[in-house]
Design brief:
Length: 165
């Protein structure tokens, strides 16, 4: 089973963090991870962070539950391959992504902001997880806002256990 590390933003993850943990590939969520929900513009510093990861030899791919019409143009703009309709928390999207970047599961980590999709999905798939705080939640759909409330006890428990699980 993979490990979990809690970070504030994706840009806080460094190549040194990844090397220290044996991570060579990142499976990236989009909404509230690299950009705000529904946006087509990257959050501040994300483009430079992606370039740093690429330069460090980190394999990157996008893994999202969103429709292809949302994810494909976004991933294409970043020069990344993608898996849309990943069915997270099912492990299938993560398994496909690890195969796509050509790495064993233990060398991959998902980067995402949701407990019930990203974090649970990593637990089922065997990849590690960088669980982030969502960039912005006030513009999310009502069901997602409700799910955020349900996530709070899980987040508190993870943080109480420490950065690594």
């Amino acid at each position: 089973m993979g490990k979990t590390w809690c970070y504030r933003r994706a840009i806080d993850i460094t190549p040194e963090d990844l090397k220290e943990r044996g991570i060579r590939g990142l499976l990236l969520d989009i909404d509230n991870t690299l950009t705000t929900y529904g946006s087509t513009e990257l959050a501040e510093g994300v483009l430079e962070w992606l370039d740093t990861m690429k330069t460090a030899g980190i394999a990157l791919t996008v893994v999202s539950n969103a429709l292809d019409r949302r994810i494909a143009p976004f991933a294409e703009k970043l020069g990344l391959r993608h898996i849309s309709l990943a069915c997270k928390p099912s492990p299938i999207g993560f398994w496909r992504a690890a195969r796509r970047v050509g790495l064993p599961l233990k060398q991959c980590a998902a980067v995402g902001d949701q407990i019930f999709t990203d974090w649970f999905g990593t637990k089922f798939s065997g990849v590690s997880c960088f669980l982030l705080e969502p960039i912005r939640t006030d513009n999310e759909k009502p069901f997602l806002r409700l799910r955020r409330r349900w996530e709070k006890p899980f987040r508190r428990a993870l943080l109480k256990k420490g950065v690594q699980q």
